Request: fold
Amino acid sequence: METEDKLILITGASGFLGRPVVNELHKKGYSNLFTPRSRTYDLTNPAHIKRLFETEVPEKVIHLAANAGGIGYNLAHPAELLDDNLLMGTHLLRESMLNGVEKFVGIGTICSYPRDTPVPFREENLWKGYPEETNAPYGLAKKMLLVQSQAYRDQFGFNAIHLLPVNLYGPRDRGFQEEERAHVIPDMIRKFQKARDGLDAKVTLFGDGSPTREFLYVEDAAEGIVSAMENYNGRAPVNLGSGKEISIRDLAYKIKNLVGYYGKIEWDTSKPNGQPRRCLDTTLAEREFGFKAKTGFDEGLDKTLRWYRTQLT
Ligand SMILES: NC(=O)c1ccc[n+]([C@@H]2O[C@H](COP(=O)([O-])OP(=O)(O)OC[C@H]3O[C@@H](n4cnc5c(N)ncnc54)[C@H](OP(=O)(O)O)[C@@H]3O)[C@@H](O)[C@H]2O)c1
Reply:
C-alpha cells in the first residue's frame, strides 16, 4: 500500500463527500493533507488559487469542491452553477499543471451524460447528446474539466484523471440542512419524517415518480476515489456507481416504509421529472482499479435515516 507522505490537497474536504474522502485517506495512512475552506481560498477567484499554490505545493490534488444541489437548486441557479464550477475547475487544474502537481483527480458527475443515454450508461457514450436541460449548466461545466484534463494529458503529459460519480447518499448530506439544495434522498427523508411526526398533513414530491435513479453510498464513493488516486492513470473518464437502478416511485415507497409514515403521497406533476433514466455501467472502475460498491441500498438508507434522526434530538 502506498502511504508515502506526499502532500495531498483536497478541495471541498468539509463537504458531504469530502469528509469520507479525508477519513478514507487517513484510514490508508495518508497524514499530510491540506484541506482549505472556501472562506480562506475561494476557488472561484483565480487570485485565491494562485495564493493557495504560493502557500503550499501539493503533489496530488483531489478536486471535490463544487457548487451543487438537486433539481430545484439547478432550476433556480443555472448561471451560478455554470460559472462557479467552470471557474473552480479551470483555474485549479491550470495552476496544478503549472506548479508541477503529480496527479489531479477530477470529480465529475452523472449529470454530464446526455439525456437519453442508453442504459446502462457507458463512458464511451458521454458525448452522444446534450444533457438533461434541468442540469445541463452544472453537468457541462463539470464536463469541461474532463476536456481540460485530456488536453493537458495530450499536450503536456499531465496525469489528470476524471471520475463520474452517480447520485450519492448518506449521513451529513448538505441537503438535510439546506432544503433548497436537497437531492432526492434527503428531500424524501425529511418530508416523510415531518409528515410522520404530524408537522405536515401530506408529502408532496417532484414530478410523476416515473424516472429511475441509481445511488451510491457516500463512503463507498470515497473508497473508489482514493483507490482511483492510487491505481488509475488513464485518459478515459470512469463511472463510479453501484450499477443498481430504482424508480423514484419505488424509492418513495421504500423511504415511506422505512420512516414509518402511513399517509398520502402527492405527485406534483407541474414540476419536472429530470432525466428519464440513470444507471451506470460500472465495469471499467472494477477492471481499472478494483472498485465495487459494497454497501447494500437498504443498509445505506438505514444508516442515513438513523443519522438524520440523531440530528433531530
Ligand atoms: N452529492 C452528490 O450526489 C454528488 C454526485 C455526483 C458528483 N458529486 C460531486 O462530488 C463533489 C462533492 O460534492 P458534495 O455533495 O460533497 O458537495 P457539498 O457537500 O455541497 O460540499 C461542497 C464543498 O465544496 C466547497 N466549496 C464550495 N464552493 C467553494 C468555493 N467557491 N471555494 C472553495 N471551496 C468551495 C465547500 O467548502 P466550504 O464548506 O469551505 O464552503 C464544500 O466543502 C462535487 O464535485 C460534486 O459535483 C456529488
Q: What stands out?
A: The pocket of NAP is lined by residues 11-12, 14-18, 37-38, 42-44, 64-68, 107, 109, 165, 167-168, 174, 183 (CB under 6 Å). The CA atoms of residues 296 and 305 lie 14 Å apart. The radius of gyration is 19 Å.
